[in-house]
Amino acid sequence: MPSGRKGSVPRGSNLLQAAQELGVELESICGGRQTCGKCQVIIESGHFPKHGLTSHPDHLSPPSPLESEYDQEHNLNGRRLACAAEILADVLITVPEESQAHKQIIAKEATQRFIEIDPAIRQVYVEVEPPELGDPRGEWERIALALEKQWSLQELTIDSKLLPDLQSSLRAGDYKVTVTLWQDKEVVRIQPGYSEGSYGVAIDIGSTTVVAHLCDLRTGDVLATQATMNPQVRFGEDLMSRISYINSEPQGFVRMNRMIIKSINELIEKATAKADLTPQDITDVVAVGNTVMHHIFLGINPTQLGVAPFALAIDSPIDLKARDLGLSIHLSGRVHLLPIIAGHVGADNVGVMLAESPQEQDEITLIVDVGTNAEIILGDKNKVYVASSPTGPAFEGAQITHGQRAAPGAIERIRIDPKTLEPRFKVIGYPQWIASGSNGLIPSEVKATGICGSGIIEAIAELFLAGIIDSKGHFLSTSADRSSRVHYDVGEAYYVLVDEQLSSTGSPIVITQEDVRAIQLAKAALYAGTKLLMDHRSITKIDRVILAGAFGTFISPYHAMVLGLIPDCDLDKVNAVGNAAGDGARLALLNKQLRLKAARIARTVEYVETPLATNFQDEFVAALNLPHASDPFPHLDGVLPLPTVEVQKKRKNRIRSKYRSRS
Ligand code: FES
Predict the structure, then answer these.
(1) 397/407 Cα distance (integer angstroms)
(2) Strand-pair category, 434-435 with 423-427
(3) Which of 46, 299, 480, 589 is deepest in the core (most CB within 10 A)?
(4) Beta strand pairing status for 121-127 and 282-289?
């Protein structure tokens, strides 16, 4: 419940597997490791004639040691972790709202970009000599001759799958045909008579979302954009959880590969239907993705990417037939994958660089793509460095007490009055700001369900700006005297962001000391990675910041800087560019020269291995402070709260003792 799905599963199956088999999507950030607590379910007890069963908590296996540990630390309140509980007899399960996997909000629209149209696919119309007695040449050879004479195309090959229908196409068109060529090398389609229309799809396979742009290859127009959640999310939010699922399940890899191919086929089907086309009209696909998605898409087991030295099966660009991957486009359609840079820096980053071109800029540009792993690109026309930093899934709402992915009901914007400490917030799906005390003034369906990534960034920054937490991220005992929203006790401190009347769960939505810590750790990893690249480039200042990825679109640059997620920079020069990786794939789809350029970019950027850098740890520790322990943030002058009296005292003492030791 509440979906009403029911079915039989083998005794001993765990509830998470059972839910997946029945098509009920449960949150599962840790991939069933019994650590994230997102898969909590309620076990109903009693006889339920409507369902024809008797359910009881004893019909499940007793809690595992890990589950008991989780219960002790977080209080499951009688609920069970679906990934831990094994089914021994009939059970009726209720999935609370916060455990239901939500539909993702996706920044899916393709950005307007200047693209020179020069696709790998083109159509040519030819008139072919009909066969006659005394001329023993084959039909294909006469088409090839016509292409040479009429279009100066030489040494062409034809995809063998076209041969069975070749003669009928020639006759249907009275020996006039439209030939579709790939890279002026191979014939991939033959249509009777004159035909116009050449289409391709650019795909960004993200860990969380998959986006497809259907493009007219002659005009460059985006005819349809379709996006979906990556179905692999159910096996874990982060890439390592998915690799561990592959390693632990005998059919895990095959299942993941089939899922992503099926999902892409569905996207193409929907996108083509929107444009009154069919998947058979698609003759070219360009795909990008992080290294794990790239390998799974290609049918390569990504196990090696889960352990040092993170060996890639291949890092060059790849051209292959769509049918070899199981993609349901035109039978002879092609697929191109952009190259990869390193074990954790994938084709999606090459797509971002193709779209944003930091390697051609005079200004020092920092591009960050925030996800479970943050990818960082920094440089200018002289040199570009890239790195990947393990931020963990906190920015996606995991590890946060009331964290959730961006979905209707999630809090995405937060303001805290610095005087009264009263909050206002905005939830996805409702345009107005909601203040505490607005109960009854807003429709019940817009009650808050949790806090998404952009919301948690604003929340922590606002707590800091309002003086509720200090620059070390600690709740200040004095703030509890200022407002009843702040609870401060030994070992426990939190801020009540949403009262229970405005929460869909009926319980208050809070931000705890642990939540602040989780965000500090994540942002410090990102900042430390950026600092390493700045050191490599021998700079102390950045001219421009680009926030890439769907998540970047929703982040407030101001709050990101207050938090110290990004270094100091003119706020007018901090921009979100949406799905730049997908835009890069689209550029490479519409211009074949850009595929060569992508290969050059991948060869010339320098990859910096963050975990190996000796100063990473020092940078990380310094970056834990809000916004930073020592780096200046002149663009936030007058904005940041003044240090508290205690901190000022400590500073004075430090300066005094320094002075004494020198004298
Ligand atoms: S605790 Fe069950 S999926 Fe994470």
Answers:
(1) 11
(2) antiparallel
(3) 589
(4) unpaired
- Site to substitute for ligand 1 among 17, 34, 76, 95, most atoms within 8 A of C-beta: 34
Percent of the chain whose pLDDT exceeds 90: 63
Measured CA to CA, the distance from residue 377 to residue 608 in angstroms comes to: 10
Question: Rounded to an integer, what distance in angstroms lies between the CA atom of residue 628 and that of residue 619?
Answer: 10
> How far apart are alpha carbons 343 and 230 in whole angstroms?
21
Length of the chain: 663
Residue 34 in contact with ligand 1 by CB distance below 6 A:
yes
Q: d(Cα 332, Cα 323) in Å, to the nearest integer?
A: 7
What is the pTM for the complete model shown? 0.77
Q: Which of 233-242, 259-268, 286-295, 653-662 has the lowest mean pLDDT?
A: 653-662
DSSP 8-state code for residue 28:
-
Measured from the Cβ of residue 575, the count of other Cβ atoms closer than 10 Å reads 14
Evaluate: CB of 79 within 6 angstroms of ligand 1: no
Overall average pLDDT of the 617-629 stretch: 94
Q: Which residue has the tokens 């801020």?
A: 495
| β-strand pairing of 606-607 with 384-389 | parallel
> Which residue type is seen at 65?
P
pLDDT at 656 over 60: no
DSSP sequence for 462-491: HHHHTTSB-TTSPBPTTHHHH-TTEEEETT
Distance from C-alpha of 455 to C-alpha of 409, rounded to nearest angstrom: 12
CA distances from 339 to 294, 342, 347 (A): 10, 10, 5
State in Å, rounded, how far the first CA of the chain is from the last one: 74
pLDDT at position 643 is 60
Spatial separation of the C-alpha atoms in residues 519 and 458, rounded to whole Å:
11
CA of 392 to the centre of ligand 1 (A): 16
Q: Which two tokens stand for residue 280?
A: 């058979």
DSSP string over 73-84: HH--TT-EETTT
What span, in angstroms and rounded, lies between the C-alpha atoms of 373 and 390? 5
Could you identify the atom of ligand 1 that is nearest to the CA of residue 236? 3
34 Cα distance to chain centroid:
23
The C-alpha atoms of residue 77 and residue 348 are separated, in whole angstroms, by 42
- Which residue shows structure tokens 């008139």? 127
**Higher local confidence (pLDDT), 48 or 551:** 48
DSSP assignment of 101-159:
PPPPP---SPPP-----B-SEEEEEEE-PPP-TT----HHHHHHHHHHHHH---S-EE-
Task: Pick from 17, 24, 25, 35 the residue to mutate for probing ligand 1's pocket: most ligand atoms within 8 Å of its CB.
Answer: 35
